[in-house]
Amino acid sequence: MKKIFFSQFTRKILKSVFAVLLFAGCANQLLKYEKVEHLKKIDEFDQQVKIVTPVVSPVVSSGVPVEVPSATPVSPTQSKIGSIEPQKKLPSEPKESQKKKKKKIIHEEVLKPVVSTQHEPELEGEQGFIGRRPLKDPFRVNEKIVYSVTYLGMTAGALTMEMKPFVEVNGRKSYQFQMSAETKSIFSSIYTLDDYVVNLIDYETLIPSVFTLHVRESKQLREARYLFDRNKGQVTYWEKKVTEKDGEQEKKLQWEAPDYTQNVFSAVQYMRVFSWEVGTEHAFRVADDGQNLVFHAKAIRKEKIKVDAGEFDTIVLNPQVQLRGVAKPMGDIFVWLSDDDRKYIIKIEGKIKIGTLVLEADEIKPGID
User: Fold this and answer.
1) Cα-to-chain-centroid distance, residue 182
2) CA distance linking residue 172 with residue 50, whole number of Å
3) How many CA atoms lie within 13 A of 97 on its CB side?
4) Per-residue pLDDT averaged across 276-303, rounded?
5) CB-CB neighbours of 236 under 10 Å
6) What are the beta bridge partners of residue 304?
């Protein structure tokens, strides 16, 4: 298969920072479309997915904030993702009774154990995990990393990875990761973009359930939704887009996928949950574009590097992909993770058809411990 995984990986994860390489033209304004709200609405997805943003209680007996589901779900204008559970009317209670009830909920949440499920038996191994939960969770709410992306020695764009506050997806606590990108400097005059993706990963299983992709560029507008239904072992992908050439188009893909499957966006974060030492190899499943792949990575060396965000001891990974049992080398592509419990992605470097694309961390905000 000529279209190897990294072409998909870069096109979908890093596409938004080197789109100038994929498109020709001189447009420097975002494409305008008067039915943009219609484009964002994907009814079938909205009927199956309910996303609620919890509120956080600032005071508990242990001194640790505990998330309690909000009685008033946020409105669609307040949330960029999914559909919102309708508000339920509750009978009024005396204020004193409400206070006691709230304290009881907080106490139960503090004592409630984490329910872990079986770890991937064939690929991932159990080292560093209890069930599917890592012994050391690398993620923190409000973590934010800003990267510069360079091509041919010039700054082509900026990419930001963030972990937003937890949400509930169909009643299950989930990590909320957001990745956004924009072109910079001379590249903006050639091709303008403002893209972001929100990826929701189940807290207990570390399996992504949903991602929503929003693309605003010079020549296209696109809305995409991804849903992995573990009960059915099925992935559904919806897409609506508008281009200057072809107007509005719709696409839907549905295929069976094994349990434990990541998507191309969650794969970036999922690399961070493993324990890495030189010579260590890890693998996990990835579903994308109607296909089921196996992502492999090997830690090849340790290296101290300096970027704008600081100086870091790192461990360098070299990835490859397997499709239908056949390994496909990914070429000269390397990922630098910080050699600590957080495993920040410090740098990604990959050779493309012409030149090398480099992503480096400019700023790291560690988030809330």
Assistant:
1) 17
2) 10
3) 4
4) 93
5) 17
6) 313
Does residue 20 carry a pLDDT above 70? no
Residue 306 confidence class, pLDDT cut points 50, 70, 90: very high
pTM (predicted TM-score): 0.75
pLDDT at 39: 67
Does the structure show a pLDDT above 80 at 12? no
What lies within 8 Å, CB to CB, of 27 at 6+ separation is 191, 192, 218, 219
The pLDDT of residue 185 is 58
**Mean pLDDT taken over the chain:** 75
Mean pLDDT of 323-340: 74
Q: Is 291 exposed, middle or buried (0-12, 13-18, 19+ CB in 10 A)?
A: middle
Distance CA 308, CA 331 (A): 26
Helix (H) or strand (E) holding 99: helix 95-111
The CA–CA distances, whole Å, from 231 to 168, 236, 256, 260, 288 equal 18, 13, 11, 12, 19
195/356: higher pLDDT: 356
pLDDT at 331: 55
Whether the per-residue pLDDT at 160 is higher than 90: the answer is: yes
Which one has a higher pLDDT value, 127 or 98?
127
* Structure tokens belonging to residue 159: 């990419």
Q: Which two tokens stand for residue 122?
A: 């064939």
